[in-house]
Hints:
Layout: H1 19-23, E1 45-46, E2 50-53, H2 60-67, H3 82-99, E3 103-108, E4 112-122, E5 134-140, H4 149-164, E6 169-175, H5 179-187, E7 191-192, E8 198-199, E9 211-218, H6 219-227
Helix pairs in contact: 2-3
Bound molecules: coenzyme A.
Amino acid sequence: MMGRRRARFSFNERAAGKWSSISRAPIISVDGTLPARTMNTGPTLKTGRLTLRRWREADLEPFAAMNCDPAVMEFFPTMLDRDQSDALAARADSSIDVDGYGLWAVEVKGVAPFIGFVGIRSLAADTLPFVADAEIGWRLAAESWGQGYAPEAALAVLRFGFEECGLREIVSFTSTVNERSQRVMQKIGMHRDAADDFDHPRVAAGHPLRRHVLYRLTAEEWRASVGRGVDEPA
Ligand SMILES: CC(C)(COP(=O)(O)OP(=O)(O)OC[C@H]1O[C@@H](n2cnc3c(N)ncnc32)[C@H](O)[C@@H]1OP(=O)(O)O)[C@@H](O)C(=O)NCCC(=O)NCCS
């Protein structure tokens, strides 16, 4: 089993769900370089239009609305109730303290304070039929779709994962029928081998969402794509 890789810097650890400390935390920008940090504030990633930041209490209500929107949750086996949604947000935020990376809350600068999450999570403790350091994933509110926000955020996340965290390979996977998510994977330079398709072990046998595609990107492929300018937002 591959060991869990942390970011090269350390963070103060904080128990999940302590939203009062999150909501008051100032944001410190990363902008692709190692920044000064204080407890519970970073890392924050910035792109041309977006800020990927730590979660705030104010995110919880719009996040819960997304998690029970049938459009957003079309390719998930179940929708989330408020408690499940809050717990997911707390895990997303606390994993940033534990691993140095995680699922960041996304805001559109000057436009929308919260549109969902984009980020990476460690696969070290997961039981899936492949080996990789981490998974990149995304979930945005339906009103914000179609503007290239997910690939823009994901490129910043890949850069952070490979360059700051030293990850060797980042994968992404989704149900074979989730073409929107696969388009994001393709746009950020990930590639699929149909031989890697798999049945997700936590989706019931016979469920139409069980069959999954797997997209991969290694650090070497990332470095080559940076040279070709693939990491620059359109
Ligand atoms: C997948 C997702 C993050 C894409 O985010 P996004 O910021 O809209 O990404 P893009 O703007 O690059 O659009 C990606 C594709 O979505 C489709 N799309 C765009 N706007 C759409 C809309 N309003 N309605 C339906 N599909 C749309 C297009 O096919 C587009 O590909 P194209 O640019 O080649 O035409 C977003 O659709 C989402 O949050 N979906 C629900 C959650 C989900 O499935 N997460 C992934 C789980 S593995």
